[in-house]
């Protein structure tokens, strides 16, 4: 990873967690080609986006779980 970052000329990176139910399920990393300090407003917006992503991922996982469960119940019902 370090080699890729160097090849791309990235000088600064900021990492934000993607949370779901108080657990980190991923991260967003922003790379900049020059030293960059994010403002509080920028950090808040990115954190809000990460929060929305966490909710969407969680909802998607729940939906897939329920679909799987429904198929299992249909299989059992057909026996």
User: What's the mean pLDDT score?
Assistant: 92
Order of helices and strands: HEEH
Stretches where pLDDT is under 50 for at least 5 consecutive residues are: none
Please outline the major beta sheet.
2 strands, antiparallel
Strand content: 15-25%
Class per helix and strand makeup? alpha+beta
Number of strands: 2
What would you say this structure looks like, in words?
With 79 residues, the chain is α+β, with helices and mostly antiparallel strands. It contains 2 helices and 2 strands, in the order αββα. The chain has helices at residues 2-7, 40-77; strands at residues 12-20, 23-32. A two-stranded antiparallel sheet has the order 1-2. Strand 1 and strand 2 (23-32) form a beta hairpin. The radius of gyration is 19 Å and the shape is elongated. The mean pLDDT is 92.
Question: How are the SSEs placed, and which strands pair?
Answer:
Elements: H1 2-7, E1 12-20, E2 23-32, H2 40-77
Antiparallel strand pairs: 1-2
Brief synopsis:
The protein is 56% helix and 24% strand.
Give me some keywords for this one.
single chain, 79 residues
């Amino acid at each position: 990873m370090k080699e890729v970052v160097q090849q791309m000329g990235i000088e600064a990176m900021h990492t934000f967690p993607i949370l779901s139910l108080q657990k980190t399920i991923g991260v967003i990393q922003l790379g900049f080609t020059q030293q960059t300090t994010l403002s509080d407003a920028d950090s808040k917006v990115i954190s809000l986006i990460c929060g929305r992503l966490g909710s969407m991922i969680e909802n998607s996982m729940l939906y897939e779980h329920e679909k799987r469960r429904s198929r299992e119940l249909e299989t059992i019902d057909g026996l």
